[in-house]
## 1
Amino acid sequence: MLCRRLIARSPSRAFPASPLPSAQAPTWFRHRASALRLAASFRSRLRKGGEEEAAARKTGRRGWEWRRRSAARAQCALSLQRPSVQGGGEGGRGGWRQQEEREDPRQIGCPEGPSPATPLSLLGQAARVRPPPPLLLLSAAGGRRLPFSARARWASPFAPTAAAESSSAAASFAAAATFASFSSTARLFRSFSAAMPEKRPFERLPAEVRPINYGLCLKPDLIDFTFEGKLEAAVEVGQATNQIVMNCADIDIITASYAPEGDEEIHATGFNYQNEDEKVTLSFPSTLQTGMGTLKIDFVGELNDKMKGFYRSKYTTPSGDTRFAAVTQFEATDARRAFPCWDEPAIKATFDISLVVPKDRVALSNMNVTERRPYPDDENLVEVKFARTPVMSTYLVAFVVGEYDFVETRSTDGVLVRVYTPVGKAEQGKFALEVAAKTLPFYKDYFNVPYPLPKIDLIAIADFAAGAMENWGLVTYRETALLIDPKNSCSSSRQWVALVVGHELAHQWFGNLVTMEWWTHLWLNEGFASWIEYLCVDHCFPEYDIWTQFVSADYTRAHELDALDNSHPIEVNVGHPSEVDEIFDAISYSKGASVIRMLHNYIGDEDFRKGMHLYLTKFQHKNAATEDLWESLEHASGKPVAAVMSTWTKQMGFPLVYVEAEQQEDDKVLKLVQKKFCASGPYSGEDNPLWMIPISICTSEDPAHVKMQVLMDKPELTLVLKDVKPEHWVKLNLGTVGFYRTQYSLEMLESLLPAIRDLSLPPVDRLGLQNDLFSLARAGIISTVEVLKVMEAFVNEPNYTVWSDLSCNLGILSTLLSHTDFYEEIQAFVRDIFSPIGEKLGWDPKPGEGHLDALLRGLVLGKLGKAGHKATLEEARRRFKDHVEGKHILSADLRSPVYVTVLKHGDSTTLDTMLKLHKQADMQEEKNRIERVLGAISQAELIQKVLTFALSEEVRPQDTVSVIGGVAGGSKQGRKAAWKFVRDNWEELYNRYQGGFLISRLIKLSVDGFAIDKMAAEVKAFFESHPAPSAERTIQQCCENILLNAAWLKRDAENVHQYLLQRKASPTAV
């Protein structure tokens, strides 16, 4: 099999450099340089065939066999023209080999599909990927008082108090037995989890030489997929040295020299590539003295197809031709694939960028164009020069060359805003333009710091791994994260675009103007942007009720991951670049956003804004660490911000707060205990981690306002609530803001249930309460049956976000019970729960309905359709038939529920029709909508057809993961087939995603739903023989989840079955 690239690198290699300028270089060197260019020009050709080769032939170039022979001659020339190869680094000398590549960002899946409110995570979540994430939900008990037959599981941690009562004594005994089973499960799980591999040795770049300004000119070849580059960097030598160490990956340096200010040029005599560390050392024959000088480097590289570095993106013109754009994705450590540089966030410099491009192409970079002139060597090319950037980090540099239309406006503070779209689709950029034009002034006012650049461009890229990337002044997006068709885009897509735009533009201040000092502080960039995007969308679209959606999209998502033993602290020490990808996850994004939200609530908006202004002005154009932000916020608020927040960012996990109440005359005395919450059951460790928890308390007298607020800074706390009558309920964590779970005593919980039924408890608190109960059941602390009883109270729930969270929790439970023979019973439960709200909503919008009604209708109909609700299935089939025949086109908000319903209960004709709709779709949103539901098909041979389709040319590389994940989440049979498909096609999939975030997501979606112990062993064994270093933590988390699912199933399956049977036989069932 052919290598991914012809000139792959050995682990470390070194070439002598010419001691003369290229024009005067000896013949052998000029031949070597030509060979390098020639070989580079054919790297990608060896991987391409089919339509790309056919397209290349149309250009008049010679055939494939000529290219193959020429490439081989080029490689031979390289070996002949390499007089010496120095050792150094792992691997020493050696043959040519492939070099691993890295990709970037964030995104997760939910058994019930994506939710409209997704954290960014994935979503610049930095380079931000995220199709809407999973939403989880909370509950109450149907119109009756909960019996709570399994009271023993609700054992109070107040042993002395509980022991005083005979009933509590029995509870303690039962709890002890339950705890023993938890302990054995935990031991099994912990013994199964391998320790994280030792971190690879790594050193940051030496400080002897630092850049001041990069003068960079790049000339991409959009036919041969290569580029030539010239770098003239103004540098400062701080300490005398005879070598310069830079970052460099997948680039061949041709010549390099250094000219001290006012002195003669010194030519490098060797280039030593340390490929494992992605570095190159330029050696000079004499010492470079301290002072200023100019470093010049000529180099060549490849426009790769890995969606990182300087890469090619395939698109189709309105006339149907296939063409390629040259685009960039540099975060976290891929600027080094476009030009040799000091690719660390703390090593900032200014950039003077110019691009040599075809004259009929659009060329964009971070700054505005200052000059566009004919290129002297080719009349078909132009040289485009851009203004000098502010001081910035390399990962924020960007350039794009391609064919685009645009729409533009100016914000109220005078910034030129443009949205670039595929040709002919400018209309689809107007919504994002509107959002961006509102967002810039909002952030300017909020931070009291103006946007520092003259323009901001937002551009849709066809092939893009992340959701978006916050490059300063040139923000890149997936098409689905930027483009909105007024007629064919659904409500959830509009909301998604608004969130992503808000996230990326927040980074223009928080991340770009002030940048993290090192990747250890990545969470600060991403967590902050993932929080403030909601603040921005709430400002622009208050009708979205976006903060309630935050709880289901980010807050609960972070809780789910952080409860695992294989989670990690928010702040993770990062060394080698290969470690960076592991922290682009829900901890950095969603937990980061959640603790920032908690902090904002704790110190108040006014002091928070003052602190943010102080931080941004103090560190603008510089780098900062987490502690710098805490210092600014502490100065503004006078509260112990650093002490409080260090307990949330430096240790893994979060607390479970147990609370019980005692009435003393007209007062209620609350006793609180905090313990670490673990997905495997009650915490049994000896270290007893402690959090400083901002506790807020409300009562039934005024559910929307705080009765008491206190900082819990010790394991146990007693509070007295004055003038609270016995019949009044008490609730902790008003607004579900504190990042902890709450377990109430039985009496306190039962007193809260009427407030859920009569809706006097606000939606976000109803959601939070039910989600806590569901998580306690998953951990085995309470019975799953009791949670099902609570869920029945939600049949008349009006709030979309509460329903979406409930839907996701029932999806998780349905996936678990698909491993039993009573799966149909849980589907009947789903039908009973969702039928009343489905009948109330109907299929068609009613006058006066808004954004959230449209989201709720799609959610409910999709849930009923998948569960086999007869009336919903019949209507979905009728509407689908009319849609396909063109009689009545489905509204965008109804397409997903209709598609998933007809596929779930469809046959080969249904699948063929859906694939035809996919092929005909002109919008990427519609293609993605279809791709995400194809896995709902149930027949084995059709499941295989969908999996084969996932790797076809019909599916963009970044979307293959969604298709395979949809199959894995569609059914038990699909889950097995998807895992086998991943194993059978592992080499192709791993080479496609090269160890980046998408490979982690693929693994998670493929195996997370298993619930058999032996599957954890199988997954572990497979990845021991097929290493995926950047997904190591994800693999461990998946194995842990499989074991937890298996334990949950063994513990509660029979009780759930009996409850569902009794309920089915009862005339009082919903």
Note: Residues 1-187 have pLDDT under 50 and may be disordered.
## 2
Amino acid sequence: MSSSTTTILLYTRMLQSLNLHKPHINQVLLDLLVQRKETWLAFQVYMDMVELGFGSSDVENVTFENVVRLLCRDGRIQKARNVVKKVIAIGLEPSRLVINEIATGYCEKKDFEDVLSFFVEIKRPPDVLAGNKIISSLCSNFGTERADFFMQEFEQLGFSPDEITFGILIGWSCHEGKLKNAFTYLSEILSRGLKPDVFSYNALISGVFIEGLWKHAWDIFLEMVDGGITPNLSTFKVLLAGYCKARRFDEVKVTVGEMMDRGLVHISTVEDLLSEAFMVLGLNPLAVRVKRDNDVGFSKTEFFDNLGNGLYLETDLDEYDKTVSGVLEDSMIPDFNSLVMKQCEIGNLKAALAMLEEMVRWGQELSLSALTVSVKGLCASNSLIKAVTCLLEKVPKLANQLDQETLNLLVQAYCKKGFVHSGRKILDGMLQRHLTIKTETYTTLLMGLCKKGSLRDLQDYWNLAQNNKWLPGLEDCKALVGSLCQQEMLKEALELLESMLVTYPQFRLEIWDLILEKLCVTGHTSIAHDLVEKVKQECCILDHTAYSHLINGFIEEKRFSEAYMVFDMMLAKNLVPSLDASVQLISQLCRADRFDKAIALKEICLREHPSFSLSVHSALLNGFCKMGKSGEAANLFMVMLSKGLCPDTKVYNMLVQGHCQASNSRKVGELLGVMIRRNLSLSISSYRKLVRFMCMKGRVLKALSVKELMLRDNHSPHLIIYNIMVFYLLSTGNISHVNTLLDEIQEKGLPLDEVTYDFLVYGFCQCGDMSSSMQYLTAMISKELRPSSRSLRVVISCLCAEGKLEKALDLSQEMELRGWSHGSIVQHAIIEGLLSHGKLQEAENFLNRMVEKGLIPENINYDYLIKRFCGYGRLDKAVDLLNIMLKKGNVPNSVSYDSLIHGFCACNKLDQAMDFHTEMLDRNLKPSINTWDWLVQTFCKNGRTVEAEKLLISSVQIGEIPTREMYCSVINRYRYENNLSKASELLQAMQQIGYDPDFKTHWSLISNLSNSNDKDNGNGNCSQGFLSRLLSESGFSREKDSKAKLR
């Protein structure tokens, strides 16, 4: 027993002894044991669970099924049987799956007496699938008589045989030559109102031919057809074989004619019907000839036709009879394994799956060869990969016997279709069996893990593949490198790069280009740049493509200075960026106000890529327009026209946007005229800028005209055009025009969408029309549309500012009901409204609901509310708000901490105040000088002078200048405590930063020192020296003192 197994067992026993069994704990434990196939332990734990009364829930029923399945598949049928007995004893009903597993286990062991006693013991019959399996197995091992006995025993228990049950007995009866019994079973089928299966009729027809009763074969066929049973190709093969065996070739021709009528064969009227029959049976029509005996004495005649002509066969009679007899024998009991393989070989996978289902109904076992062929065929399919999983789950023992070629294909198919977890399980099984795993298998698995797996799994299987000397092909490497970069597995990507460079030295430049491109497009341009520098040091020459990747990457990452640096380096090397990099770079150079470089790059591109002149000019034009250089843009546009370039819609839209930005109304009008004449469409971006420009200039009517133009000519949804118009009209306070627009929208039958409502709510609120804003907000919410956070924020703020707190609270309640988060501004507005009405407890309750209902956004800021609650003395709530901010990853500002410290100082809770002070410093927040002052003075008042002094010193150490009051508080406290040396030290420190002590403090300190001197007679000189020094350092020298006495 392994150590982990021992641990699990000990843990289980401990739970038992302490009576700590919990259903979910046992559940997890059992699932683990089943997963690890710890059969004996799983059995023990489950039996303990039953003893303790667990096992009634649906989840525990699944666990019960898993345990029974594990026991049966491990060959421990008796243990599984004991589990079922226990479960029945506590009132649970075993599922069909459980009973079938036990029945299957007994069948595999051929313990049929035990299987019968099992069903008698549990007083339950087998279901039809289990019953058919048992009947089929009995027939093949002990014959139909024994099988019939078991069926009758099962019927006494309540078993209901179906047409397949009797079909099994019909086939085996025919095989045993008991044709009478076979017809009895057919009669039983019909008497029970069941419909015989086509395979049963095939067996009966075959049986009558073998018994020489060929005259009755066609009658059985007609009865079959009249009963609504469609004959299949096997039916006609039996008829052909039987008639060929009986030498009834006229009937053979009739049968072939029937096949033609049903579309099973296609032959011309001139062709020999007998030849077609021989081909269907697998005989060579050139080697089998039916000839007439023209001899007077019929010396060669073997049989006669319907006209009395003597005929004989010219062929190898032994081979002929063996073939037709074989067809008849094989047709008695359907061989579904052969049928499955045949369908897979011709690519009819759906038919193969149907045969697999039929195989289960007929109680037959799937062979390893049929499973192998099926798995390979399904793996090659684009749509049936899920069927493989279902198939393998039904035959786990066979699945563990599949060869490595099939399993490699299976892993690849799973991973390509996105079933990476299933692929991993198969590959893990292959490793346990020490099978060879192909390079393609590792590659597809790693690619799949890049897309769907966890990073840890990817790293584990990457290391496994590397240890097995795996190296994918060049094309696979390209795809894999990109995926590794996306997963941030740069170390592995570079390792793969090195291996590729060694393995494919002839593609060195292409490989470098690949890794640089992948690094740049996945946001790792800096690493790509370092690689380029390394390659340069190794004297390897890279072309312009590598540097172009760097430019594209840096621009994508908004690191424009690095992109410009790479560009300058390329110019120094006489390299030209690729066209796409150049187009991006031109626009960015313009944005950086490096127009000379942008123009120079344009000239270079025109020289290197003359066929892309329009794209290059457009890029520069775009740069000019974005930077408000409308004059330069207009000049460049004229240059383009002079060069014969035909600007497209995109160029005209750039110019429109540029002139709108430059507020050039005349140019905007001219461009619009040209676009209308040339039937060019305005883009939505241009329309948005035009409307904004015109509304801000007060030209609302022109903006409305542009709207009409867009509605007529643009392919964008009309509601988007209206929404833009509504937004800018409201932004500029044109409410009357908005109402007109809304009427127009309604007339056209356009339903307002979420964006329209949101613009109306926000816009009317900003215009001060709260009634309209609330009207559309109410309509929006009633239609289950969600307003934007911005709209909710501005509406609630306005309602609170106008004193309409109840309406704000009603809106907040609607938000709560829908689980909409309340941002900082919304909470601040509502809390401020409640506090202004003296509703302090309601404010706290509101904040508590926000927490309980999870309505607090990640970017919450409670700094203002922390200060407010501190002001009301509600320090606990202020601390709660601070903790919420910290949990959300937001650090409160120094004012919040200052407020809390002040609050705790006011309550004389100095330890809590110091905790927040320490935390504040740890977060690199600077306490205000008032906070230091409060702390020092409060500590002094509470007699904690040493700590007050430490705070004083700390404030100096972090660069703060303590107040005069802070020094005086500590000095006076030390003086009160008669700690004159400390008081003196602080007095000197106070004077060093420019503060003069007040006379009272100073004289009191001198008096105390004098009294101390009088008491100390033995050290008069020393005391005098100290006092003199103190007076001198305090600004009172002897000279001044004597002069004062003279006056």
Note: Residues 1015-1028, 1033-1047 have pLDDT under 50 and may be disordered.
## 3
Amino acid sequence: MGHVSRERDWQVLQDERRRMLEHVLEAHKARGGKVQLPIGMNTAEPWLLDAVDVQALLAGLHHNAKGNLDLLQYCRRATRTLSAANSRGRSLTDAGWSAAGGADGDDSAEREAPLLHLPQLNTGLSEAEVKDLAYLVFASNCGSSTDEELAVTVRSQLDVDEARAGEVARLLALVSSTLHKMRDATGSLPVSELWTANLELPVCLLGVVLPKDFNRFRSFVVWRDTLSHVLLSTLAASVRDGWQQQHRQQGGGSSSPSAQQLMARLKASLRRCDVRDADDFDEEEYRAASRAVGEHAYAIIQCVSAGWSFPWGLRVRLCEMLLRGVFDTLDEAAYIEGADAYLQLLQARLWPLLGVSPSMHNAGFAWVHFRQFVLTRHPGLVAKTKALLKRLALLARQHSRGNSGGGSGAGTAGGSSTANGSSSSSAPGESSEDAALTRGVGAAVIDWIAERLADYHARLSGVGGPEALPNLVDVMAFAALARGASQQEVGDMLAAAIRSSVEKELQRRLAAAGSPEDEAEACSSMCSIVKELAREQMNSWASGFSGQLPEAVPLSLAVLHGAAGARLLPWLSSISSLDEETCEALRAAMELEPLLLGPITAAAAGCQHPATRRALEAASAWDVPMQLQPVLAAWVHKQISGFELWVARQLQQESWQPLAPGQPHSASARELRRIVMESLDALFELGLPLPAAVVGMHMEGVDGMMQRYLAGILERLGPWAALVPPLPALTRYKREVAVKQEEAESGMPGLPEALPPPGTASKKGLPFLECVRRTQQEPHAERIEALSPEVLVVMMASLGYLLDTLQPIANTVAEKWQEECRRTSSAAGSGRVTADGSGSGGGARNPFLSPSPEPHPNGYNSYNNTRGEPPGVSESWGGGWGLSSAGNGGGLAAAAGFGGRGSGLGPAGFGGASSAGLQRAEEHFGSMLEAAGQALRGGVAVVTKWLAVRVVWWQQRAGWCELLYRHRVTSCRIDWLLEGLADVLGGPVGLLPRQPRLEVAAALLQEAALGLERALLDGGPCKWFIPADAAHIKDDVDALTRLFFAEGDGLPMQDISKTLAGLNALLKLLQRPTGPLREEHRTARRAALLAGVGGSTAAAAAAAAAGSGYASPAAGNTGASLKQQQLGPLAASRLTGGGVAAAAAAAGPTGSSIYSVQVSGGGTGGNSPRGGGNSPRGSGGGKAAAAVVQQTAYAIAAAGGDVCGAEHVLLKVLCHRADHAASKYLKEQIKVPKARDATIGETFGRLTRLTRL
């Protein structure tokens, strides 16, 4: 009785709903609106109100408050009503109607019942007629044995009210009574034993029941029309599906009637029964017509294969209709109470009578569940349907293996019902129609689900969304297996559905996002959309396919990868610049690809489904880094081109002033460092994986930028050799001439420590005798004057500052590379794209990955002293980048860095805390700047040399070349020149750190030693010496030593001694008497002639051998040798276009001079006897003199000098000896001219020509 109570409650709720709808419609009319009803209806009838979708109606009233309201447009199909006359649900083959969409956006078409497309199911009966027939069959066979509550439930499920149920029971009792009377009268029943479950039932009802058995004639007409239509349609279906023509001759020779004739006679008999008005009804006529209907029906069933049985299609529809009753009316997703008893009743009592086989029952029960799910969207029904379809698939496989025997579809339904209502029988008598039904159910389920899975993103929103997807996929798979498909074919269907839906959803989202005009922006937006869709696939949608297709997620990602690649790859090939939008799109693409390609790559190897495996293997990487290499190279090339213009502009604008106290470098050097660091930041801020070739190209650009900056400085300086004046010609001493010139210059202004004004002459007209050109008369005097020591110090500091910058640049690149490697490594595991542009499937770790380096141990840069120390606090720049090898902790090539171990900038400066990976990165990128480091080192060497040459040979040219020791040693000593050197060291050079100051000091000492040697050996016709002068000159050498030693704060004494070794050896020659010097020269000259050594002495010897004597210097045949001697190797390299590195090597801090190399090491002085004015004069060949000469020659050879060079030095010492004996020797043996006025004029003119050369 519980069900009766629920039915009563449901009726109350339905009445209240109708009244509320009527009130809403009346309110609409009151506001001025109209309600349009179906034709022939004055008021909204109950069945119409029951079909109204309330949400759709309210939405229509909201948008159309006073308009015309067509009520039919807001109707939906009711799944259950209590009115049998107005409820017309849908069955397996009904077309149904469409309803207006609900306000919640739910597509009502999604809730339309699915259809089975089998011709046999087209019985011509409506669902209401099938329900009536089903209840009639149920009541006639099971009504008496069914308890009251179950009977009420079945009646409610088949839309039969209590009155109609009583009427059916009364009519069946009437027919049964009539048949029993006939059996009592004749001894047998006029019908078969199964007349209650076949076509005999409507025939008996038509023949027995009369209008008097109803309360109204109209009810009889409706009842008779239903039975007539059922009979006619059913027999027509039987004829259509199973006609068996019997060719027998009737009386008179005519053949049996055809199916068409029999059906025409049946229709004629039914028309005779069709009486519409009670006044026209005649009982005898009606009984005769009904008997004719029975006779013609009997004639037809004799010719059809089914006989009196219902056709197979009608049996399927009756089975489906009765199985629907297992679901509750109020809760349509739940079973009724006593569902198991109901199913057992059907299988035990009704199915054998109707000929429903276990296969038909299982197929129908699965279909009913699937249909109920479609109508209710309850996820629990999907699981039940899946279990039933799995059972069908098992039975289908058994049938295909031949485990079941043949039989007719009308066989008995053996077996018992299981808990879920399916038959446990293995279908021993399954017919071809039952197998077709199983396949049809599977096909219908497949079609319905496949249609939605082909666009599951949009179509499954109303079916349960991603939560319902796994069960739906399983249902589709089991349905396909039930119809005989293989597992591979199931995978093909699912793969096609995934591909179709992903492509459609992607297109929808792209269309919704619009089409930006900029292609880069469009690609970036597409990558974002694909990324979001890919995450949805991995987290919800595609994972629902994994139960049947394990590679569903990788397959969906492969579809997205292919679609995105089809859009990205053409754009990648068209990129010509890297603006912000382009970089953003590239970053999005490279972030997207590992997300897609990683799972694809991981799943491809183990994929079992052939089509899916091919799709996964076809997903090749976009290789964005490789695609970007030309663009990145063009970007870097553009940056490098800008470097060249920028350097030229900075050098043109540079004033070469110190930047600030403690920062002696120039603003251009600081700006160059800034532009380099900004360019590196810009390169790595692109956020793109940078191939090593691109980074190397940029580093080469930085290298070239540094070298162009250096080249600009060196171009402005020019060769330092141009500052060194040419050597004057050699002349011998002539006392009259020397005294005359000394007396003429005695009263000239400025002397002895300054040159007299140009053109100054004595009272007797003798001019000031100049050995070299004054600096004001040099062709490039103005340019060289602008290159003051202050400017040169700033240039040198700027080059050192850039040299210190190289290691931070390498560190910055290494750190940023490391960060890029970390970012790309964490972007995806397998299938990641590393920073060097190579794809990886989880390969080896990048060797450069390491923790960040420790800070600089000193915490400051030597050029940018942020701690506020006064100038000169730092020990060195870049770990000792100066010229001297002392204190230089390591070279660039040796450390692959740019500083020594003590600087804190090389690999050792990071201590033990930095990993080997970072050190390797620094070495790798540091090696790319090695050429710049070598060039800058060479540039520092050149500028240091230039500064020293500029001070000694330009700023102090008059002092060293003209005034020092002029006429006699005591007239002008070296003190005032040393004061000038001290001013330079304490002034502009004092801005430099200690080590560079020492390098400059070493260069100044070297040039001062050269200047002093030149004063002694090539001082011109106004400098004469005697052996006693060596003591005074030794005091000057000691003063020079003290200046540069600076009480231990200056150059090391060993370096000073090495530099002045030539001077010390020369002093020993100067203090030697004339006689031994003359013998030594004669011996050296003879040895040079015997050795055949070329040069000026060899040429003179050859001339002497020819009888022409010593060639005069005025003849010009010693000019080339003089130039070669005074230029030196570094100047020769610069003048001949040699490289900076070669020049730096040539200008290295050897501490030697062009003279000391011939008498170095003091060997001569140590082995030769000290002589004086008491030494023998003349050219005697005594044993003592010969021993001295031989010992001197051996000492020169042991010291590494050549005999020709020793002969030349001895010759110059003799030329400057204020001794008549030396002058006589030079005149007679060497043919050296004396210092006459004409000779002096010739000498000055030749010096002018040599300078121009």
Note: The two ends are 134 Å apart (CA to CA).
